[in-house]
């Protein structure tokens, strides 16, 4: 055995085999410790949210955000058009139009962050109430987990009424 270990190629192969055995052992241990599979999702500690349903027309937060965006866009368009009409040269007109596009993009990001923060807060509240340890988007979970989308939508609707 020691004579075989003197060869560098044999040492490398032996090290790879030991590492593979170690990794397989860790994987088996992790597999046995995982949350219950979807067949018994009542005991699952993973919650899932369908983001496409969260961004639907039924979500009051989404509706409010869309209205806020449209209102801002309309106001910005009127202000920008008045400035463009008063401008003399094309360079100034282009600069004003570009500023308006940047302001609109910034407002879009602000509104999206606000919606995301409210949705995350609602998901955390529902997850905590249900005793879930993890809440993920549905498209990141291959199988398993408890769908809490409806409860999160209800929480968002209740929060919007306040």
Automatic annotation (TrEMBL):
Superkingdom field: Bacteria
InterPro entries assigned to the protein according to its UniProt record, in alphabetical order: Chaperone_Skp, Skp_dom_sf
Gene3D superfamilies from the UniProt entry: Skp domain
Presence of keyword Signal: yes
Keywords, ordered alphabetically: Signal
Any Pfam family matching the protein: OmpH
PANTHER family given in the database record: CHAPERONE PROTEIN SKP
Family: Belongs to the Skp family.
Protein name, UniProt field: Signal peptide protein
Organism whose genome encodes this protein: Veillonella infantium
């Amino acid at each position: 055995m020691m004579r075989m270990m003197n060869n560098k190629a044999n040492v490398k192969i032996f090290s790879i085999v030991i590492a593979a055995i170690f990794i397989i052992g860790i994987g088996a241990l992790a597999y046995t410790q995982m949350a219950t599979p979807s067949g018994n999702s009542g005991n699952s500690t993973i919650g899932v949210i369908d983001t496409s349903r969260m961004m639907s027309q039924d979500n009051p937060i989404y509706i409010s955000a869309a209205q806020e965006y449209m209102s801002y866009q309309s106001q910005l368009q009127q202000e920008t058009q008045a400035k463009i009409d008063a401008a003399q040269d094309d360079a100034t007109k282009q600069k004003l139009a570009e500023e308006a596009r940047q302001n609109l993009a910034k407002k879009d990001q602000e509104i999206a962050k606000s919606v995301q923060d409210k949705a995350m807060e609602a998901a955390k509240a529902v997850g905590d109430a249900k005793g879930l340890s993890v809440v993920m988007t549905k498209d990141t979970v291959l199988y398993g987990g408890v769908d809490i989308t409806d409860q999160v939508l209800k929480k968002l609707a209740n929060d919007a009424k306040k």
